[in-house]
């Protein structure tokens, strides 16, 4: 986490608070503020392995402070009916920045354990500092023998799975300079674990049985596994000592060319220095946008990665999501080029464009950056939106603009051709020009949850946001072709007819839009109040009639807006689910049936600011007043999201979803890219709309600088 923000000060250590470390390679480390893992996804080194996706390699360490003959636990684990060891009893404080730090006080000593991944290296550093709590305590301990006993606990399994004691694991350790090497399974790489200081490593292989993960149990999944201990370090210490252990997939990490171990403190200091200021690319954009936006821009670096082959990807969320086409394109502006990372944004768009197949953008990418699946109906259409926003950023750089157009224009035209040719699964262009998608048994839009193989929110027919994305793509391609003197993929007459067909089919008596229109022979239109209709207003080329903009925004704001995002279904609907909880079926059943999603604040803000520019008849407002009231109300509404929430769940990050009613409990991933990116983009838009109102509001927030 970016240091110096203060948002993690005075937080009471709790297993509900989670920290996150990343390294830009797709690896991560994650755990709780008590030090006890509560999810199968938690671990100190969860590595993105070539051709194999992420694996939890080093799950945790068991560490004890030994004073003469007394052993005092620092770490904690869950086992059936108990916590063992009970290091949480000695944990006095915890903080997340600039890296997770656990402070223990026992017998006149203060022991601090810090954890950091090294950027660009498959390596975790674990740093212990030992101090006397006072001079008098130090004097009393001067004749005592002090030792840290540290036992690495290995999982070596896919991060979605669990492991159990087995006879296939290779228990033998091999001595290396300042530590040992072990390769538990032939198919996985060896890990090299080293320690500083005066130590003995005692090989003593054993399985630690029935480790439990309480959150997995709550979520209705298997929750027990066995971890393997290859042996333990006995590190001799005294007050004032500062010892670093490293666990790495790189045999040469921490070793000089001469073969002599390097000072790990130098490597630690270099990593902390890298974190001490936002990356230069981020500073250029974020520095003038205020401390909150600067903080969010710095944090979003966690979602960027380079594959083993050097491809640039954006990860959808931690701890369990990889790279998704739709998520990437929605999160990309607020994570990269609007946050000052122009080169990263261009690189990711290039990866996406070059991996398009017959005009289709991949639904997912694996850990190597290879496309996996082309079964999303909307991912390809979000590409146009990214290109539109990118061109605004590039507007003052003609050379790069031309280079970008040469990349995106052919991809854009091929996307349109793919839809018209019927190459997009379960999708066809109707005679009206609108897009019909799916069957009653498919789930092809972002509302894709299933229970027992059936969609929870059937969106077959003509989903409103698909029409909005389709029209925006066509209108953008039309203007692009005109500028470049390319063949026109969609004429002005076709666009006008498309707008007319949309208005005729989708407009409801109250001025809002139905969620899914269906022809009479295909069933009843779905008039459920959902946030999807916002895209018909929010897109750069909006398909909704201007006369409906205010009605759409007002109704969505009244029924769906919450302090943490937008509900996915009106509370007035009989199918509304107020709480996201229970096992997989219960949670999937609530996923888009009311559950709040922060990312929707981006489209809501775009639509709100557009609606402020027109009157109820869709005519342009004659007075050029600032939308001060609307900006102020929205900022005040979402204040808990950027204050309270950044101090809970995944500290410093934003969750994927929230329950639909107070207290709006966070859930899903603890760090979700499109949540943070779209909130960041929302804040930039509100600041641009009324800077004075925004800055007055920001002064009321806790310090982010």
UniProtKB/TrEMBL annotation:
<protein>
    <submittedName>
        <fullName>Amylo-alpha-1,6-glucosidase</fullName>
    </submittedName>
</protein>
<dbReference type="InterPro" id="IPR024742">
    <property type="entry name" value="Glycogen_debranch_N"/>
</dbReference>
<dbReference type="GO" id="GO:0004135">
    <property type="term" value="F:amylo-alpha-1,6-glucosidase activity"/>
</dbReference>
<feature type="domain" description="Glycogen debranching enzyme bacterial and archaeal type N-terminal">
    <location>
        <begin position="18"/>
        <end position="243"/>
    </location>
</feature>
<dbReference type="InterPro" id="IPR008928">
    <property type="entry name" value="6-hairpin_glycosidase_sf"/>
</dbReference>
<dbReference type="GO" id="GO:0004134">
    <property type="term" value="F:4-alpha-glucanotransferase activity"/>
</dbReference>
<dbReference type="InterPro" id="IPR012341">
    <property type="entry name" value="6hp_glycosidase-like_sf"/>
</dbReference>
<dbReference type="InterPro" id="IPR032790">
    <property type="entry name" value="GDE_C"/>
</dbReference>
<dbReference type="Pfam" id="PF12439">
    <property type="entry name" value="GDE_N"/>
</dbReference>
<feature type="domain" description="Glycogen debranching enzyme C-terminal">
    <location>
        <begin position="300"/>
        <end position="681"/>
    </location>
</feature>
<dbReference type="InterPro" id="IPR010401">
    <property type="entry name" value="AGL/Gdb1"/>
</dbReference>
<dbReference type="GO" id="GO:0005980">
    <property type="term" value="P:glycogen catabolic process"/>
</dbReference>
<dbReference type="Pfam" id="PF06202">
    <property type="entry name" value="GDE_C"/>
</dbReference>
């Amino acid at each position: 986490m970016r240091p110096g923000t203060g948002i993690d000060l005075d937080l009471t250590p709790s297993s509900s608070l989670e920290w996150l470390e990343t390294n830009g390679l797709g690896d991560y480390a994650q755990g709780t503020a008590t030090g006890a893992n509560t999810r199968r996804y938690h671990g100190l080194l969860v590595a993105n392995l070539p051709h194999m996706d992420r694996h939890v390699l080093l799950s945790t360490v068991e560490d004890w402070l030994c004073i003469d003959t007394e052993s005092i636990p620092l770490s904690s684990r869950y086992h059936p009916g108990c916590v063992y060891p009970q290091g949480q009893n000695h944990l006095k404080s915890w903080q997340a920045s600039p890296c997770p730090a656990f402070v223990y006080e026992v017998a006149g000593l203060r022991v601090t354990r810090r954890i950091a991944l090294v950027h660009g290296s498959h390596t975790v550093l674990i740093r212990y500092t030992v101090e006397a709590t006072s001079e008098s305590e130090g004097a009393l301990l001067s004749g005592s023998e002090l030792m840290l006993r540290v036992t690495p606990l290995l999982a070596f399994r896919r991060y979605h799975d669990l492991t159990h004691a087995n006879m296939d694991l290779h228990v033998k350790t091999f001595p290396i300079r300042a530590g040992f090497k072990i390769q538990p399974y032939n198919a996985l790489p060896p890990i090299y674990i080293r320690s500083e200081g005066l130590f003995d490593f005692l090989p003593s292989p054993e399985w630690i049985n029935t480790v439990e993960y309480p959150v997995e149990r709550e979520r209705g999944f298997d929750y027990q596994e066995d971890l393997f201990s290859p042996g333990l370090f006995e590190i001799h210490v005294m007050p004032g000592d500062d010892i670093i252990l490293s666990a790495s997939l790189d045999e040469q990490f921490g070793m000089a060319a001469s073969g002599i171990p390097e000072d790990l403190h130098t490597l630690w200091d270099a990593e902390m220095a890298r974190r001490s200021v936002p990356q230069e690319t981020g500073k250029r954009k974020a520095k003038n946008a205020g401390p909150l936006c600067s903080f969010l821009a710095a944090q979003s670096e966690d979602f960027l990665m380079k594959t083993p082959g050097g491809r640039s990807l954006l990860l959808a969320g931690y701890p369990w999501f990889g790279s998704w086409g739709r998520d990437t394109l929605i999160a990309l502006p607020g994570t990269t080029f609007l946050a000052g990372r122009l080169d990263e944004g261009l690189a990711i768009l290039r990866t996406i464009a070059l991996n398009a197949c017959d005009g289709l953008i991949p639904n997912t990418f694996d850990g190597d950056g290879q496309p996996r699946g082309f079964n999303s109906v909307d991912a390809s259409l979000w590409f146009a939106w990214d290109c539109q926003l990118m061109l605004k950023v590039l507007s003052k750089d003609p050379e790069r603009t031309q280079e970008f157009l040469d990349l995106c224009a052919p991809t854009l035209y091929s996307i349109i051709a793919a839809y018209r040719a019927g190459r997009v699964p379960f999708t066809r262009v109707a005679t009206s020009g609108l897009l019909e998608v799916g069957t009653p048994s498919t789930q092809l839009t972002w509302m894709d949850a299933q229970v027992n193989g059936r969609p929870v929110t059937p969106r077959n027919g003509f989903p409103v946001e698909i029409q909005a994305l389709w029209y925006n793509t066509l209108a953008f391609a039309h203007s692009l072709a005109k500028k470049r003197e390319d063949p026109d993929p969609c004429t002005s007459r076709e666009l006008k007819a498309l707008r007319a067909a949309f208005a005729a089919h989708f407009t409801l008596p109250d001025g809002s839009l139905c969620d899914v229109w269906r022809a009479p022979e295909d069933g009843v239109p779905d008039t459920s109040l959902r946030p999807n209709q916002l895209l018909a207003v929010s897109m750069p080329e909006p398909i909704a009639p201007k006369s409906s903009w205010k009605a759409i925004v007002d109704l969505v704001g009244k029924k769906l807006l919450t302090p943490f995002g937008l509900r996915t279904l009106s509370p007035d609907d009989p199918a509304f689910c107020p709480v996201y909880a229970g096992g997989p079926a219960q949670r999937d059943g609530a996923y888009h049936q009311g559950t709040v999603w922060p990312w929707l604040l981006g489209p809501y803000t775009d639509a709100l600011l557009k609606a402020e520019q027109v009157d109820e008849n869709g005519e342009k407002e004659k007075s050029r007043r600032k939308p001060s009231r609307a900006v102020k109300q929205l900022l005040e509404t979402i204040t808990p999201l950027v204050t309270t929430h950044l101090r809970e769940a995944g500290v410093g990050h934003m969750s994927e979803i929230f329950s639909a009613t107070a207290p709006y409990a966070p859930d899903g991933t603890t760090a979700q890219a499109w949540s943070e990116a779209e909130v960041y983009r929302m804040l930039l838009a509100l600041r641009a709309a009324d800077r004075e109102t925004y800055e007055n509001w920001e002064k009321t927030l806790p310090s982010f600088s």
